[in-house]
Each structure stands twice: as structure tokens, then as C-alpha cells.
Specification:
This protein is α+β, with helices and mostly antiparallel strands. It is built from 26 helices and 15 strands. It has a five-stranded mixed beta sheet with strand order 2-3-4-1-5, sandwiched between helices. Strands 8-9-13-14-15 form a five-stranded antiparallel beta sheet, covered by helices on one side. Strands 10-11-12 form a three-stranded antiparallel beta sheet. α5 packs antiparallel against α6. It is flat, with a radius of gyration of 31 Å.
Length: 695
């Protein structure tokens, strides 16, 4: 019997595979194998350095990140590697596994240390301590996690190099520990915690994490900064997302395509077939990376496993009764139980909509015009077409509770995917491949489907760009399209018929756009995302264009203006009450692109605004970069997103605060008082009133 797709249901974050427990085989590793990441490669090399006693090797490691980032897996992997590196023949592994798994009949507590293992003299290791979860305290202990962390650091600072310490800690506990150390005037602990916080934070000045800047005995790694979906040239291993997909789509674990209960119309077997091969596989991974760039969020392991399960096995939160079996559920949609032939056909078409929506190209976005469901019901009643299968099936599909079509752990991410990347609303000018050697524009699809659904289907079908399910559904919509074009139907209610016909053509075009778009990894704003990705990788030409646009946003008519009688956040007073300082243009420059092995790759680039002591860093976020692209295409600054306006205003206010205090920046500046013609000019360190006549 095939292991998948049923076996994938346990991969979801709300099932057994969602939470990793240290040394517990039945949790947190649904793929069966350890997923190779850059951090694990780093930890493996570190364990070997510890085992060999290499000088300068950090002894205390802080793994920083939230839940689902693989911290527990990293700790278990590191313990195994330390055991191997020090030739302990499983002694360390067995001791710690016994403590964490409860085999020793003792609660492991927050801090677990090796007591029985004897370490070889070569490594100079005297003890190994593990904090699996720094956000927890000991059972019945009133000491806060922040206090525990400060105590650990105090102990580490007072010990020799023989104590090896590994801790998983989230950013909240680090912040609390910094506040606590500051309140207690523990300067040494506070400075170290401050460095840890800075090294794990996003800033224009990248602080060395491994080893920690100024503290060579310590190392930090922010696990929620590195991408698990980015494919990096030169890396030996594929991205974590591709490794997970490789395991989930192995043909030997699935029924042969077309042999499951739903046959070749099973959306889950279809998804497996597509995602196991190119170009769908690479395009899918690229779209996941586009989500990270556009949203500023990172996929973690729990999300990736949940998403894989959702796309390849659906969700048990569907309307199925009893034990949920993906292929059987798909069969039930194709063969509904209904004695009335007309109602059975309506349910079959509704089932086609649900099955198409389960294909990964549509499940990733899940955006359908549900707000039109109630209106469609009234319209088809007016047209007396409430028994037309495609129209009635579409109306019922739009009325379904879409919240049940995704697991609760994924709804936030999928909502973001709809907002940022849906191919259905991508620019008509974007080019998309319909076959290995044919490329069209989305506007070509839009034009064909606006004329008739049949024309659009026949165009794509000859390139074999659609699945069997999509073809079946489009054919059903064709019948409705032809019916609505019938003069006998249109004569009584022409406006209503036109409205319904526009809706079904919109739905058909949306299906086609997503299907061909995801094949090539072409999504909404994918052209901007490609360029933004190049900027992050050090492309100077794209960054130069963005720099010029940001400079024009900060300055007005090649001069920098700031109000002297308002504070940041206040609206400008009326013109007659304004006091405006005008100085020379404030330049925007590229900050050096610094990337080395001591810290993760930054998710944004930084620009430097101003000069000398007044220079301020500004993060070139995706929204700001996209805004600069839009401005070059003719968008007026007044139409900028609120987040971009806030970023520019914040930068201008910070810059103004330093400019008004900088003698060099003020030289040659002018102050305009209200509506008066008189201007106060600063020359040679003094202020001079210049009359409106120029005297």
C-alpha cells in the first residue's frame, strides 16, 4: 500500500510532525531524514573543532529564533556530531538522550549537563550543558527565563574554556535579560547580552555573530534570518524546501499516476506529478522565495512541512465525514451521491471547482470572487438558469466556507501569498511560458478569454498547459458561456446576462493565468522581485537607480527642506506660520555591501542619507524599492503606500535633527519665516537677514 498521500497529513504543524521533541523519534521530523541547512553544516564543523581542541573555537552557542525554526533539531544534530568528533562511541548521546527522553525517570529541567561522560583530553572539554528551550523555567521555579539566562551568562563568564554550552533562546527572552541586567547594574552581563541582541538584529552595521564580536568564546546564530527556500549557487545541498519536496514527491511512495480512486483527475496525485519535475518544481520554490522578499517574513520548517502536506494531501478540515482519505475525497467530488440527475450534475461541477482549487497553482492563493456569490444566485434566478450546472455549481462553490480549505497553521501565510503574489492579478504586460519554447503575455490570455472561454481553452490546450481537471472545468464553463450568448436568454435581461458572463469569463481566465503563471514562476510583481533579488545579491546597477529615486523623494527641487516649528508626526502648520529651513541637497549613497561567513545574509540592503556626522542609514525594503520602480514608471509621489511615506518621513525627520545641529550642513542655508519675503541666511557662521528685494 502506498505511504502517500495519507501519510503526509501528519506533516502538518498541528499534527505529530509539527513539534520536535529532543531525542523523540516520533516528533518533528516528518520527512524521516535530517534536512541539511547552512547552520547544520556550520555546527558540524564547530563540533569537529571542539573535538580536536582547535584554539579560538567558541564554547558557548546561542541559537536565536522563534518556534518552528529547527532549533531542537540543530541541538540534537550537534550532540551527535560532538559524540562522533570526540570518539565517545555514543556515550554522550546515550547520556543526554536518557535525560531528555525521561528514561532516567527524572524531569530533565531547563539546563541539562553531562555528568557521566568522560571526555578525551585532546578536546579540553570538561562538561557539556544544553538549554533546549530558553523561554521555559524549571518546574515549580519562580525564577524567570530572563533571570536564568543572566545566571547562565554569569557562570560562563566566570568559568574556563572547558565548559561547552548550547542554548536555544527567542528574542523576547534576550530583550528581557538585557532589561534585567541593566536594572541590576550588571554591566558585564548587560554588555554581552546587548552584543547578542545586536548581532541577531537587522542593522546597517553588521555585527559578527560567529564568533560574537568582542567575545571570541561566544557565538550567536539568528535562525529566523536565513532563508530555507533560497537556492544559492555553489552550495552543495539544495534548499531545505527542495529537500522536503524531494521526499514528499518520491514516486515509489505514491500510487502510480491514474491508478488511485480518483484516477487522473486526482488533484493531489496531479500535484505530485507536477512538483516532482521541472519546470514546476523550481518555479514553486522560486514563488516561495518571492513571498519572503515581498512580505519580509521567513518560511520556517513547520510552515514548509504544513504547506507540503496541504498541497499534496489537502486538509482534514474539509467537509468530509469520517476518516479523511485524499484520493477517496477527490473521487466523491467527481461522483456525488444524488438521485436527482440535475442536482447530481450541479454537484459534480461544484466538485470540479473544489478539485481545481486543490491543485497547487490555485491552492497557494485560494482567492476566488466569493463576494459575488450572493449576487450570482439572484442573477441566475432572474435569467431562469438556476439549474444550469456550471452556473449553479459556481454559485455553490463561491458560497462555501473557504476557511475550511486550509489548515489553521497556514492561513496567515496563504493570505499573504494572495496579497503579494497572485498570478491572477499580475500585470498584463508580463511574459509567461506556455511551453518549453513558446512565450506569451498575460494580456494575450486576457484578450482570448474576454471573447470566449472556448477560445482561451483551445489556445492553451494545444500547448498542453492545462491539467485534465482544468480542461473539464473550462468545458463546463464553456457551456454556460454559450448559453449566456444565446439571444433567447439575453433578450429579457441583457445587463444581467452580460454581468454573469463577465464573471464566468473572469473565473476561467483566473484559472488559466495561475496555471501557466506558476509553471514559469511568474506572479504579481515578479519582475520587481527579480530585480530586488539582484539588489540583495550585490547588483549595483539596480541599486543605483533606486538610490537616485530615494534621493529625489527626500529632497525637493534639489534642496532639502525641513520645518523648524514642528516635531515628527505633527502636520505642517498653515503657510503663514511655517518656519522652513532650506539647505543643500542631501545625498543618498550606497552603503558598502559586506557579506562574510561570520553572519547570515542580510534580508535588505541599506542606503546612507546625508554626509558626515548627519548621515543616516535607511533600509531599502521591498516596498520602498517597488515604490522607486513605480515612480520611474510615472506614479506620482502622493500615491505612495503609507508604509513608504512613513519610512521617508522618518528618515527626513532623523536627518533634519542632525542637519540643524551640524555647522557645516547649515552653512549657506536659508530660513523662510511664514509668507514674508525676508529670508534669514547663514554665511560664515553668522545669520544675516536678506530682504525680499535682495538687499
Amino acid at each position: 500500500m502506498s505511504k502517500y498521500p495519507e501519510g503526509l497529513l501528519n506533516w502538518s504543524g498541528d499534527k505529530a510532525g509539527g513539534v520536535k521533541k529532543l531525542f523523540y523519534k516520533g516528533s518533528g521530523r516528518p520527512s524521516g531524514d535530517v534536512i541539511t541547512t547552512g547552520l547544520l553544516t556550520r555546527l558540524q564543523a564547530w563540533a569537529r573543532d571542539i573535538g580536536s581542541g582547535k584554539d579560538g573555537t567558541p564554547k558557548a552557542i546561542f541559537l536565536v529564533g522563534g518556534p518552528g525554526n529547527g532549533k531542537t533539531e540543530a541541538v540534537e544534530f550537534t550532540i551527535r556530531e560532538l559524540d562522533i568528533a570526540m570518539h565517545l562511541d555514543g556515550a554522550l548521546l546515550d547520556e543526554l538522550a536518557s535525560l531528555f527522553s525521561g528514561q532516567s525517570r527524572e524531569h530533565p529541567g531547563r539546563l541539562v549537563s553531562s555528568k557521566q561522560t568522560r571526555f578525551p583530553a585532546q578536546g579540553k572539554v570538561t562538561a557539556i550543558s544544553i538549554v533546549q528551550d530558553g523561554s521555559e523555567a524549571n518546574r515549580g521555579d519562580s525564577t524567570t527565563p530572563a533571570e536564568h539566562l543572566c545566571n547562565d551568562i554569569r557562570s560562563l563568564l566566570g568559568q574556563g574554556d572547558g565548559h561547552v554550552y548550547i542554548a536555544c533562546v527567542n528574542r523576547g527572552v534576550l530583550d528581557d535579560a538585557l532589561i534585567l541586567a541593566t536594572e541590576r547594574d550588571e554591566l558585564e552581563i548587560g554588555e554581552l547580552v546587548k552584543k547578542v541582541v545586536q548581532s541577531a538584529s537587522l542593522s546597517s552595521r553588521g555585527i559578527s555573530c560567529w564568533p560574537l564580536e568582542g567575545y571570541p568564546r561566544f557565538a550567536v546564530w539568528p535562525m529566523d534570518v536565513e532563508s530555507l527556500v533560497e537556492e544559492v549557487d555553489g552550495q552543495e545541498a539544495n534548499s531545505a524546501a527542495k529537500q522536503i519536496l524531494d521526499v514528499a514527491t518520491k514516486a515509489m511512495d505514491w500510487p502510480e499516476f491514474g491508478t488511485c480512486a480518483a484516477g487522473e483527475r486526482c488533484p493531489f496525485c496531479t500535484n505530485r506529478k507536477l512538483l516532482a519535475n521541472e519546470p514546476h518544481r523550481s518555479s514553486y520554490i522560486r514563488v516561495l522565495r518571492w513571498f519572503e522578499l515581498s512580505s519580509g517574513k521567513r518560511w520556517n520548517f513547520r510552515d514548509l512541512f504544513s504547506l507540503t502536506a496541504y498541497l499534496l494531501a489537502g486538509t482534514t478540515e474539509s467537509e468530509s465525514k469520517g476518516v479523511y482519505q485524499p484520493c477517496e475525497w477527490a473521487k466523491a467530488q467527481l461522483e456525488p451521491r444524488e438521485s436527482n440527475a440535475a442536482k447530481r450534475e450541479i454537484k459534480r461541477v461544484r466538485g470540479l471547482f473544489k478539485l481545481v482549487a486543490a491543485q497547487y497553482q490555485h491552492a497557494l492563493f485560494g482567492a476566488w470572487p466569493v463576494e459575488r456569490g450572493a449576487g450570482l444566485r439572484n442573477d441566475i434566478k432572474e435569467l431562469k438558469l438556476d439549474e444550469q450546472p456550471a452556473l449553479a455549481g459556481l454559485q455553490q462553490f463561491l458560497s462555501l466556507d473557504k476557511r475550511k480549505e486550509a489548515t489553521s497553521t497556514l492561513r496567515t501565510q496563504l493570505a499573504g501569498m494572495r496579497t503579494y503574489l497572485d498570478s491572477a492579478v499580475a500585470s498584463p504586460a508580463l511574459e509567461v511560458a506556455v511551453s518549453s519554447n513558446t512565450t506569451i503575455k498575460f494580456e494575450d490570455l486576457d484578450r482570448r478569454f474576454s471573447l470566449s472561454i472556448k477560445e482561451g481553452r483551445l489556445f492553451l490546450q494545444k500547448y498542453q498547459s492545462l491539467s485534465v481537471l482544468e480542461i473539464d472545468l473550462l468545458k463546463a464553463l464553456e457551456e454556460a458561456d454559450a448559453t449566456l450568448s444565446d439571444e433567447a436568454v439575453r433578450r429579457a435581461k441583457p445587463a444581467v446576462a452580460e454581468r454573469v458572463q463577465a464573471l464566468i469569463r473572469l473565473v476561467a481566465c483566473r484559472i488559466a493565468r495561475r496555471s501557466v503563471g506558476l509553471r514559469s514562476g511568474i506572479t504579481k510583481d515578479s519582475d520587481v522581485l527579480v530585480e530586488f533579488s539582484q539588489v540583495l545579491n550585490g547588483d549595483s546597477s539596480a541599486l543605483q537607480e533606486a538610490r537616485q529615486q530615494v534621493e529625489s523623494l527626500l529632497n525637493k527641487e534639489r534642496q532639502f527642506q525641513v520645518s523648524l516649528n514642528t516635531t515628527f508626526g505633527e502636520p505642517l502648520p498653515p503657510p503663514e506660520r511655517r518656519v522652513m529651513l532650506t539647505t543643500d541637497i542631501q545625498r543618498v549613497r550606497q552603503m558598502p555591501f559586506q557579506q562574510d561567513d561570520s553572519k547570515p545574509k542580510l534580508p535588505v540592503r541599506f542606503l546612507s542619507v546625508g554626509s558626515g556626522n548627519s548621515a543616516q542609514p535607511v533600509a531599502l525594503t521591498y516596498e520602498l524599492f517597488k515604490a522607486t520602480k513605480s515612480l520611474r514608471k510615472g506614479m506620482v509621489p502622493a500615491s505612495l503606500p503609507r508604509s513608504v511615506v512613513a519610512l521617508i518621513d522618518t528618515t527626513r525627520a532623523k536627518l533634519a535633527g542632525t542637519v540643524v545641529r551640524d555647522e557645516d550642513s547649515l552653512e549657506g542655508s536659508e530660513i523662510q519665516l511664514g509668507m514674508r519675503d525676508d529670508v534669514i541666511v547663514r554665511n560664515f557662521g553668522t545669520f544675516i537677514v536678506r530682504r525680499g528685494t535682495g538687499q
